[in-house]
Structure formats: C-alpha cells, structure tokens
Amino acid sequence: MVIVVPDSQIIGILERKAKNKMLATLIPLFDENMTVKAYSLFTQKKNFLLNPSFLGTGMNDGVGQIQGFELIENMGIETLSGDKEVFIPVNNISLFTDIDEQCKAPHDRVVLLVDNAVLPNDMYVNRLKELKNSGYKLAIRKLPVSSFEDYRQVLLLMDYILLDHKKIDITKARIYFTKIYPNIKLCAGNIDTQEIFEQLKAEGGYQLYEGAFYRMSVTKGEAKVAPLKVNYIELLNIVNEPDFDLTKAADVIGRDTALVISLLKMVNHMTVNSEITSIRHAAAMLGQKELKKWINTAVTNQLCADRPNEIMRVSLLRAKFAENLATVFEMGGQAGELFLMGLFSVLDLIINKPMEEALKMVKVSKEIEEALIEDKGHFAPVLEFVKQYESANWQEIDRTMLLNHMDSKQVYDAYISALRWYRDLFS
C-alpha cells in the first residue's frame, strides 16, 4: 500500500525545518595581478523551490532587511572579507529602507550593488545621492548598452559597473567611459577560463575581473603554495616540547595545504600500498621522531613566506566546509577524509598538474580519488555541493537540500563555521 503525502504537507514540514537561516557565499573580484580586491556577498533566505513565485525574480527577498547587512552584523565584516570591500546586493525596494541603521560596517568598506530595476528618475537618483553622501560606494549590474545614455544621472554616481564581457565591445566601452564617466571602474564578469582572463587583460579597460577562471588549471608557469605563517610558530613550539602531542601537531598541519602535501609525500616514500585516510593517520605513520625532524626543516624553510592567495583560501574553506557537512550527509565517521578531499580539490592548480597526476604525489583513499578525478563515488555529492555553494548556484543547492531532506540551518552553520575557522588562522 502506497501512502501519498500531499505536496502542501511536505512543503510545510520542510519550511519549518529550514528555521529561517539564510545561505551565503563570497565571490572574489580580482585585479589584473590576480590579487583579490573585493568580494561580492550573495545570500538567499528562502528555498525558491518551496516558493516558486519567487523563483527568478526574488523581488520580495530582502525587502525589509538587506540580507548582506544581516550577515555582516552576525559575523563581522573582518570575518567575511578581511580588509577587502564587500559588494552588497540591494534591490529597488530595499534601497529605500534605513540602510544606515542596518549597516554595522564602515561605510567606505561597503559597495551597494543595484541593477536596472533602479530607474533613472529623480526618486532613485536622489536616494543614490543620499547614500553616496553617507560614505557608501555604489555599483550597478545588468545594465544593457542601449540604456547607458538614459542612465547618465545614475552612472555619474557609480564607483563600479559590472559588465558581461561576452555582451560588450570593451574597446568602445573603454573610450566611452573614459570620456564621460572617468571615475567608474569597469568590472568584467562571467570569465570562464584563464585564456579569456589573459585576453581581457591584454585588451585593457577593465579594473576588476570576476568568474570561475581562477579555479581553472593554467597551462603556463607554476602555482606556488603560500604557507600559513601563523601555523609555523605553533608547530615549532609543539614539536620542540618533550614528548610532544602527535595528534595536536597533526591538527595544526591540517590547516596548511603546503604542509599536508609535503607530509603525505614523505609518508608515501616510506610506505607501500598504504592508503592515508587522515592527516593524523599520516603523522602517526611517520612517528614522533621523523615528524619532529620534518617539521623543523619544513617550517624553518617556509616561515617567511607570504600570506595565502585565493586558491589557498578556496582549498582551506572547501576542506573545512566539507568536514562540517559530514553530519549533514550522514558521513560523520569520515569527516577527516572529507577535509582532505576539500583540501586537495584544487591540488591541480597548486602544483600545475592534471588532477590524476597530482594525486599520485599524495596517496589518498579510493573514495577521495574517485570524487576528485571522476566525480563519482561516496564523496562526490559532498564535493559537488561545496562547489555549487561557493558559486552561489542557489537553485541547485535548493534542489539538493529538498531531495535529501537537508536542514538549511545546518548548511548555513557549516559554512559560517568554516569562515570563522579560516579567520582564526590569521588572528
């Protein structure tokens, strides 16, 4: 006998389960030197698959409360973006709310991001002037070329304009903006590959670049792994104590992709046909004596290295986020392996080799290997979820949570916890 549960009842259950927690992620914006200059904060409070009327428009999402400000208040802007500017989407309705009351961050660190729903009339222009006078920076997106002239009064107030490079002739745009709006910085969006990024740089005109290109393998040069200085002093102190705690040392090593890779390479040289399932496992196999010797050498050589780049940030956040999601995916006993999977999900970028070749250097479990090389196996859904989340693909995230009866509060807490963990590495 099949019992059919009404859709309305299912939706009601899942909505109550969500507990009103938003989803949030940060998208980096780079300069031509691949230095992160700002982050765009993308949030979603409602599961649009449970609220089809909101799908695609989001017109009522965040009317009374700008979600980006809510998150900044809860987390602190330093946790979210360090010393970088944060782009906060504001719709044509929330633009008129009490933004000063909601914003708990220095105004010059906040870029209010509007779109073409903000119209070029006196009501909107005057409000934008007020916000500009209050110290906020302004940006606009989704503005077609055909509307540039109509939006002259709006554009005169903008600090940034986000352009889809596929839909604009940058040569003409550069001349146009230099002549009429010299203070606007042009941002190229939807950049999919390193080749396109290099091409846009060569053409000139853009000051910022956004897209998935920085997570794509490069064909020239060698990506260096920047170590986390804060871990090195701690490690030296730990291993030079009498009878030091091996597991404690392993936990500190786990915060740094460069150290993890180096440790696993060393262990793989000493062992045959042995799968490494966690960093603690690798440290135990090496033993106190050899671990102490290796740490003192490695740490001394890299103590003066620079802070991590965005690839390192992605590696660490994926690792911790995947680990935190272990219980959500009912894999609590495999949290250590999920951490390694996230950490090595950009290993090909770090050492500039195909993933299959890269993983030969750091022997990992079959489950991790299958997920990273073939997008298959037990761990693959976790990795795919992490990637979709960091890209703010909320529709796919909503679908996955709905199909797997996942609690959005747990997902939110898992990501925020990862951000805090990353922040604490440098505090």
Which helices and strands, and how do they pair?
Elements: H1 7-18, E1 23-30, E2 36-44, H2 67-75, H3 77-81, E3 85-89, H4 99-102, E4 110-114, H5 122-133, E5 137-140, H6 152-155, E6 160-164, H7 170-180, E7 185-189, H8 194-203, E8 208-209, H9 229-239, H10 246-253, H11 257-270, H12 279-286, H13 288-302, H14 310-324, H15 335-343, H16 347-351, H17 355-359, H18 366-374, H19 380-390, H20 394-403, H21 408-424
Parallel strand pairs: 2-3, 3-4, 4-5, 5-6, 6-7, 7-8
Antiparallel strand pairs: 1-2
Helix pairs in contact: 9-10, 9-13, 10-12, 11-12, 14-15, 14-21, 15-18
Description:
- This protein has helices spanning 7-18, 67-75, 77-81, 99-102, 122-133, 152-155, 170-180, 194-203, 229-239, 246-253, 257-270, 279-286, 288-302, 310-324, 335-343, 347-351, 355-359, 366-374, 380-390, 394-403, 408-424, and strands at 23-30, 36-44, 85-89, 110-114, 137-140, 160-164, 185-189, 208-209.
- With 427 residues, the protein is α/β, with parallel strands linked by helices.
- Strands 1-2-3-4-5-6-7-8 form an eight-stranded mixed beta sheet.
- The termini are far apart.
- 38% of the residues are buried.
Q: Which descriptors apply to this entry?
A:
single chain; 427 residues; alpha/beta; TIM Barrel; Hypothetical protein af1432; eight-stranded mixed β-sheet; 21 helices; 48% helix; disordered N terminus
